[in-house]
Specification:
alpha/beta; 7-stranded parallel β-sheet; 9 helices; disordered N terminus
Length: 461
């Protein structure tokens, strides 16, 4: 991932509840229960998941974001602090993450309702977290020596989480990767380097990752934007190689280079790959007709930075999740373990807060589609014969209108309340009106569920 200063921090939109007045309507076809029958089966698990964990861990984690008195670095520290490659190599002796607990990581993800986990196998610094046979800049040369990818893959499967790999196309360490960083061209000349040779190395590492550890859900590529070397044809060839090795493994859009507008290009239909990858933001109106996943940090950095205390609150993170799901996307929420491998207590607390909320309300996230409404002041997901309404702020007015709904709900209730506590709902010309109780059912975000006996008939303004 890019350094945090290169991106706009993620934020959440206010979700103020209000009643909606009468509108003019035109008919719209029935809303089907779930995804189109034409959708490829290989995407089904990912679309249903809606929530995953991103893990940024590597050699850079041992530096905790500090170098020569500055404390604002992350996983880009070798480049941004201009650390010579020979000096960076000496950090191998520091890498001994004895507190890395793959089971703990996978269980935190599973409890929080995260259905898949994407971990950095190799970031832009080139350090591999598995004992690759392609070169020696990897975990086998550290005091730790163990295969972290094996531990993660096995732990994920024990906890019902799909293991997925992040892998950087960019590599600041490999002698054949081009272009060189501008600041090291004089001390590390490119003479004799062969990018084609590097591409063979890249393919060989990807082949290890897809053949050593069983089925992998996603190959999540990054570092693809240096178009003078990483061309569309090379991205297409890498995608083909993945599909030959693992036909059901998904690939994100970053397998190919992006135009000059960078992150904004990630908010459009991908040229190649199965889903788009907006970063540090949720698209204002989603990406209709495009599978997409917003990857977002809990604080300001992807890799561990001990000085970064700008943590998002649990309500803000719930807001990000409900916003993403209501717009038809997935949320990939990042964790950056410390150099010793442990998960920061701030991350643990937020994951546990998400777990408490998801234990009750996860059914309004998993297996849902984007809101069928436009212009509401609260968020909605569409489930199988269900509408889920997210109410973080309890309204003063108790009458909540779902405009244009032409079907009477069989049952209306707040998730987490006893089955007998059904709410009154009436079908009017303008839609379904639900009478809410005096109090919210959840201090972070209540969820109002409307269940229907058949497909939900809607009209749209």
């Amino acid at each position: 991932m890019m350094n945090r200063r290169d991106f706009v921090r993620a934020g959440t939109h206010a979700a103020l509840l209000s009643t909606v007045g009468p509108l003019a309507w035109r008919a719209r076809p029935l809303v089907t229960a779930m995804a189109s029958d034409a959708a490829p089966d290989r995407m089904a698990w990912w679309r249903d998941a809606r929530f995953g964990m991103f893990v940024h861990f590597g050699l850079y984690s041992t530096l905790a974001g500090e170098w020569n008195g500055r404390t604002d670095y992350g996983e880009w520290i070798r480049n941004n602090a201009r650390i010579p490659v020979d000096q960076y190599d000496t950090f191998l002796s520091r890498f001994n993450p004895m507190a890395f607990d793959a089971d703990r990581l996978a269980s935190l993800a599973a409890d929080a309702g995260m259905k898949y986990l994407v971990i950095t196998t190799k970031h832009h610094d080139g350090f591999a977290l598995w004992p690759t046979k392609q070169g020696d800049f990897n975990v086998a040369r550290t005091p730790y020596t163990r295969d972290l990818m094996r531990a993660v893959a096995d732990a994920c499967r024990r906890h019902g989480v799909v293991p997925c790999w992040y892998h950087s196309i960019m590599d600041w360490h490999h002698p054949d990767y081009l272009p060189r960083r501008a600041w090291e061209q004089a001390t590390r000349p490119a003479a004799g380097a062969s990018f084609d040779r590097y591409v063979r190395y890249l393919h060989a590492q990807v082949e290890e990752l897809l053949t050593w550890y069983g089925d992998i859900g996603v190959m999540w590529f990054d570092g693809e934007w240096e178009g003078e070397t990483w061309t569309y044809a090379r991205g297409e060839a890498l995608a083909d190689h993945v599909h030959q090795l693992a036909p059901r493994t998904l690939i994100n859009s970053r397998v190919v280079g992006q135009p000059a507008n960078g992150l904004e290009a990630k908010l459009t239909r991908p040229k190649l790959g199965d889903f788009g990858t907006p970063e540090q933001k949720v698209p204002d109106r989603g990406l209709p007709g495009v599978d997409w996943e917003s990857c977002i940090t809990m604080n300001d950095n992807w890799g561990y930075n001990r000085a970064d205390h700008h943590w998002k609150s649990v309500p803000a993170l719930v807001g990000l999740l409900t916003e993403t799901a209501s717009k038809g996307g997935n949320l990939l929420l990042n964790v950056g373990p410390k150099g010793d491998g442990s998960v920061p207590t701030e991350s643990v607390g937020r994951l546990q807060g998400l777990a408490r909320w998801m234990k009750i309300h996860g059914e309004a996230i998993h297996g849902t589609q984007a809101s069928p409404f436009d212009g509401l002041s609260f968020r909605v997901t569409l489930g199988p014969r269900r509408l889920n309404c997210f109410l973080p702020d309890w309204p003063i007015e108790r009458e909540l209108l779902l405009p244009g709904v032409r079907s009477a709900p069989r049952r209306t209730h707040l998730l987490g309340t006893p089955p007998r506590e059904r709410l009154r709902a009436r079908l009017e010309d303008r839609g379904v009106v639900v009478t809410l109780p005096d109090r919210a059912s959840d201090p972070i975000c209540s969820v109002l569920a409307l269940d229907f006996d058949s497909e939900i008939r809607l009209t749209t303004p």
